[in-house]
Specification:
Shape: elongated
CATH topology of the largest domain: Rossmann fold
CATH superfamily of the largest domain: HAD superfamily/HAD-like
Radius of gyration: 31 Å
Structural class: alpha/beta
Number of helices: 27
Distance between the termini: 56 Å
Low-confidence stretches: 1-26
Strand content: 15-25%
């Protein structure tokens, strides 16, 4: 491990020796590929005893508290003075002083009033710039189970340091960026970072590392939540060095000037250039024609005052206010007046897929037998499984249970009762329930990943006919599976078998010799209005670009259905390898980006702006906050996360492009 030795002291080499690596010094995949023993060794920790109190205090002094953002206290007089530094304000202040010297008190008062109003508007907008970071920090205020001095104790997560051994269980928030050392049926909800609500399986697999950090199997991130299962992990990054901390840092940075800001700046410099040319010219002409130096100076200064657009700030404010009022009648709340002009000049609108182009909910679209024909028998078995299971309450079970007609048709409460359950876990990738029917027969009903369920089957059922699985049938199964996957469906297999009545206890070893009944295909359908809305926006010169954390096949299917060209899609892991210049070249003719992280979205928005576009971004999650701030105009919805609303310029009262 010689390459690590060089990096151990990098973060605080001037103060301490032997420090552990952090995300600032190592790419996360470099650490994640190590064995559990080597990871613990590199972080100078101990699986059983954890860190000592003294060592934890030493590291806390070096790395600081485990807070996603350390808020900078704004010194308001400095902020106020900084707002007088823009070119237009400087020009008007100079002209106000000239008016005062020439005893033109009316002009002095008028110009000064305009400057004060303009500066105060900008001041009050800027003083709230750290609110988004505060919202993010407010998410993180809980405790974690930690090994310290050989004991498991509860500690405020702000006290965690790299090298701590933490224990995760259902309902816990992941307290830092961690690498998993052991897991049992662990599912993590990463929606705070990806926007996708379906929980992700996590395990100690060290092979999947050449991908987006959020897809690495054995890594969990601060701010995500444990949906089901348990795990033990080692902390690798805390506070501002975490993935969430990187987002928070972007939110505390000064926002880049929007196209409207740049336009005002260009106009101001044009006026100033004109004044700097005209004033000396008028002065020289007057001196040569009239010979009165003082009179020529006063007249030339009067020309300068006359040329100054002292009413411009007020005119702009009034017009933008009128625009904001008109937009409010269309279910749009304008937070920042300047965004009205940006909204009007926008030529690219970047949007998420889930909930914007789609309904934002998982729907059971198809239930097919082995021949690809729709068969209600599959739905009946799936409904029984979801109805009686008590493990992971996921969106697919919710979609199945929306078919309430099944419950009435087979009279579940009267005809069926639960005998046992075999919970889902990662290694099996399936779960089963055992029920007793009205004939007092015991049935094991299994659903899960296609490969694992089919591998447990020896027979298939089509209608009432049960046959042994043959090689040709396996080929048909693969063809159906591939067809559904290409169409963007999430596919689950369903199987069953009858069990002896006398048996009451079951385990995963009983999931064998099953009868395959068919497949369930789930989909988040596109909104009915999405296709027409996109066509109308493009007619008005606004190009739609989709930025999503979802996978390639699902994204391609949805975008094709709403009329977007899906032949070219750029993925997050490809973007990760590009520098900014390469990204600008790559995104020129691409409208769809998939498997993105929050920072990928921000990079894309900034690249589009650098190419001269006025860019809007529409998002509603914590994961969208960096891109919302990076865009010329950030658009959120009233149901969005607080941090997304704080980072946006416009808030829609309905999550739809049709607004």
């Amino acid at each position: 491990m010689p390459k690590f030795k060089h990096l151990l002291n990098h973060t605080a080499k001037t103060a301490h020796k032997g420090l552990i690596p952090t995300i600032e010094t190592l790419k996360i995949g470099t650490i994640a590929c190590l064995s559990s023993t080597n990871i613990i060794k590199q972080f100078q920790s101990n699986l059983t005893h954890g860190l000592s109190t003294a060592e934890a205090h030493r590291r806390l002094a070096i790395f600081g508290k485990n807070e996603a953002v350390v808020e900078k206290k704004l010194f308001w007089p400095v902020v106020l003075l900084n707002n007088f530094r823009d070119p237009l304000s400087v020009l008007l202040i100079i002209l106000a002083l000239i008016s005062l010297v020439t005893s033109d008190f009316k002009a002095t008062i008028l110009i000064s009033t305009m400057v004060v109003i303009s500066v105060l508007l900008r001041f009050f907008q800027e003083i709230k710039a750290d609110k988004a970071a505060s919202q993010l920090k407010a998410l993180v205020h809980t405790t974690a189970q930690v090994n310290r001095n050989g004991k498991i104790i509860n500690l405020p997560i702000s006290c965690l340091v790299p090298g701590d051994i933490v224990h995760l269980s259902v309902g816990d928030m992941v307290p830092a960026d961690v690498i998993l050392l052991s897991t049992k049926n662990l599912f993590i909800n990463q929606s705070t970072l990806t926007g996708e609500a379906i929980p992700v399986q996590k395990n100690i697999d060290t092979t999947k590392i050449n991908c987006s950090p959020l897809e690495i199997s054995n890594v969990c991130f601060l701010g995500t939540n444990v949906e089901v299962g348990t795990g033990t992990a080692i902390v690798i990054s805390t506070g501002k060095n975490t993935y969430l901390g990187a987002i928070a840092k972007d939110l505390t940075d000064i926002e880049p000037p929007t196209s409207f800001d740049l336009g005002i700046k260009k106009f101001t410099w044009l006026i100033m250039t004109f004044i700097f040319i005209m004033v000396p010219l008028v002065f020289i002409i007057n001196v040569f024609t009239k010979g009165d130096w003082l009179g020529a100076l006063i007249f030339s200064l009067a020309v300068a005052i006359g040329l100054a657009p002292e009413m411009l700030p007020m005119i702009v404010a009034v017009n933008l206010s009128k625009g904001a009022l008109n937009m409010s009648k269309k279910k749009v709340i304008v937070k920042h007046l300047n965004s009205v002009q940006n909204f009007g000049s926008m030529d690219i609108l970047c949007t998420d897929k889930t909930g914007t182009l789609t309904e934002g909910r998982v729907v059971l679209e198809k239930y097919l037998n082995i021949n690809g024909d729709e068969d209600c028998t599959i739905l009946n078995y799936a409904y029984l499984n979801s109805y009686f299971q008590t493990g992971l309450n996921n969106l697919m079970d919710t979609a199945i249970l929306k078919h309430k007609e099944v419950e009435k048709q087979i009279n579940i409460k009267k005809n069926y009762k639960k005998i046992d359950e075999i919970p889902f876990d990662f290694s099996r990738r399936k779960m089963s329930v055992v029920i007793e029917n009205e004939k007092h027969e015991h049935m094991l009903i299994c659903k899960g990943a296609i490969e694992e369920v089919v591998a447990s089957c020896t027979h298939i059922q089509i209608g009432e006919k049960i046959s042994p699985i043959a090689g040709s049938i396996k080929q048909i199964k693969l063809k159906i599976e591939d067809s559904l996957n290409i169409d963007g469906f999430r596919v689950v297999a369903v199987a069953y078998k009858r069990e002896p009545i006398a048996k009451t206890g079951y385990s995963p070893t009983d999931e064998k010799d099953l009868i395959l009944v068919g497949f369930l295909a789930f989909f988040d359908p596109p909104k009915a209005t999405a296709k027409d809305t996109i066509a109308n926006l493009e007619k008005n010169g606004i190009k739609i670009i989709v930025l999503t954390g979802d996978n390639l096949l699902v994204t391609k299917k949805i975008c094709a259905e709403v009329g977007l060209p899906s032949d070219k899609i750029l993925l997050g892991d490809t973007i990760e390898k590009m520098d900014d210049e390469a990204l600008k070249i790559a995104i020129d003719n691409i409208q769809i980006f998939a498997k993105l992280t929050p920072l990928h979205k921000e990079r894309i928005v900034r690249a589009l702006r650098d190419l001269g576009h006025t860019v809007g971004f529409m998002g509603d999650g914590i994961n969208d906050a960096p891109a919302l701030r990076a865009a010329d105009i950030g658009i959120s919805v009233d149901t969005a996360a607080d941090i997304a609303k704080e980072s946006s310029d416009i808030i829609l009262l309905e999550k739809s492009l049709a607004v």
